[in-house]
Amino acid sequence: MRALNSAYKLLTLIIASLMLSVTYNTRLDLVVAGCCFLVTLCTPRVDRKFLFISLTPFLIAAFGMFMTGLLFPSQAAAQGVETAVFGQRVIYASSLKSACQLAARVLAFGGLGMLFAFTTEPMELIMSLMQQFHLPPKFAYGILAAYHFFPVVRSEFGTVGVALRVRGVKATPFSPKRILPMLVHALERSQSLAMAMESRGFQNDAPRAVAFRVRFGWADIAFLIGLPAALLVGLWLL
Amino acid sequence: MKQKESSYSWKLQDIIFVAMLCVVFGVVYLAGVYLISPLTAIFAPLGVSLLGTEMIFGIWFMAATLAAYILQKPGAAIIAEVLASLIEVLLGNMYGPMVIVAGIVQGAGAELVFAAWRYKRFDRTTMYLASVGCTITGFLWSFVRSNYLAIAPRLLVVYFVVRLISSFIFSGVLCKLMGDSLARTGLLKSYALGRAMRDE
Q1: A226: distance to nearest CA of chain B, Å?
Q2: Which domain holds residue A167?
Q3: pTM of the predicted model as reported, rounded to 2 decimal places
């Protein structure tokens, strides 16, 4: 998984997600989720402890959707055999089915996303978007520059909150009073970054040498064709 | 891609600025997720787990409407939203591929509104309508993706209304307010919004 070209891997997984989006096959969703988890688990250099921790939000989300499907089924889904669950609420057998369907969907998307997140380096993704998908360099390096400021912006969010509190100003996390200083910083930072890059000779259209070349090969094409094909076979078999 | 050759081209600074906006709103969204997580824990067993997320959904659209409001050029809303989703993926969002698709769909909703006025009107009306636009396209996509057909229509209406209110407050009202105050600081001189403010 790590050897694959990041941008093509993203494209393949988007295609797979779109295919799952327009079909409703609970078993296929579950198989996809299971396979993705196994492949991620078996990929070398994956932080396995973190992988298991990351499963929690998916499981909570899937549980939430399951309960939604169970307690709020649509008219079409609610016809079927009546069974009393929990002693008091009437649950239809088919709403249990659609509840499973809703939950399986969340898990399948989670699996595909996890597969990508755990086996891809941000830098590699941007570089392959630039080299294989012709993302203009000014976008590629602009995004990378901003992305690296994430830790700074995050700590700034706390600092601004504390600064406001010191002055006795009440501000919720969503208050313009709190966001505006951050936007001002973002603006100033983007100006000085752009100036710094351009003064060091950054030009969008100039031919550039690439130190970090992302490979693209047969394995990527095989994955691009193979995964959607496997899904089609799955749809037909399951 | 066509507008890049025209006078609407993106400068490096514009790109970094929009990407920075996305990072800022990414942090705000994270703060929102933390705030909302106890609510989600209560809502999940009741069968309305998405209600918490829908409340802060509007933060997702803030980059799109604010970037469009400040830059005032074709493609700003959709490019900003796609950048936001790409940065989200770089930061390790676990729903990776789906986030990119959602970004395109939601950005298109805002873009359509600004395009309907041929990118000539960037005021309260178009900002509010753009926030509604994101909500509608985003919700339609959620509908297909998560198979909302299996969910009772009355709950879907509640979800939609909550998301609409959230979007209206965050990406409509708040973004308009913040864009205007940012312009008043005089920092936006090189942007369309700053110029418009000066001309008035």
Answers
A1: 17
A2: 137-199
A3: 0.89
